[in-house]
Amino acid sequence: MDEDRAEAGVTELNQQALAFVSVVILVAILFGYFFAVGISTTIRSLAASTPAPSVAAEFHQRTPVRGATEISELAENFNLMASDIEEYIEKLKEAAEENRELFIGSIRMLAAAIDEKDPYTRGHSGRVAKYSTIIAQELNLPPEALDKLKSPPSSTTSEK
Fold it and tell me: Distance (Å, rounded) from C-alpha 112 to C-alpha 10?
């Protein structure tokens, strides 16, 4: 009887150990699953936002940053990089506009110098630009075309 009782105790102890190990494994699997979902969500959002700058040149798109993991640091660094690129592009646009204005100013000065050299053609360039702009407006040409036809600074003498 003592042997049967001992065997029953061992069997019960094995069942309790099996139940305990099963619960611990289930809890570990659940923790692992939620941890993996947390990491993969950040990775997916980072992966989804990386093609925007390279394909469509959309540097304003940001990746949501969550958690304190290396993945969220990577997403934050990606956002900083996109911000820097967006800022540099804005500076390049401003520099290009400034260069454009300098170029147009140079052309206007050249036209003014030519007009001042010959009294018979003085103001000719300005009048040509003025009439060309009027014709372009009547033809409903786009603003870019009108910019190309802008008149040089008018001469101080009267037009012919």
Answer: 109
Q: What's the rounded Cα separation, in Å, for the pair 109 and 35?
A: 68
Q: pLDDT tens digit string along 79-135?
A: 788 788 888 889 999 999 999 889 888 887 887 787 777 767 777 777 887 888 889
Where do we find the tokens 């042997």?
A: 3
- Rounded-to-integer distance, Cα 116 and Cα 137, Å: 28
> Using CB atoms within 10 A of its CB, is residue 45 exposed (0-12), middle (13-18) or buried (19+)?
middle
Tokens representing 160 are 């012919």
Q: Is there a contact between 150 and 104 (Cβ–Cβ < 8 Å)?
A: yes
- 95 vs 88: CA distance, rounded Å: 10
Q: How far apart are CA 96 and CA 88, in angstroms?
A: 12
pTM score, two decimals? Answer: 0.44
Q: How many residues does the chain have?
A: 160
Domain ranges for the chain: 2-94
Query: Could you count the other beta carbons within 10 Å of the beta carbon of residue 26?
Result: 10
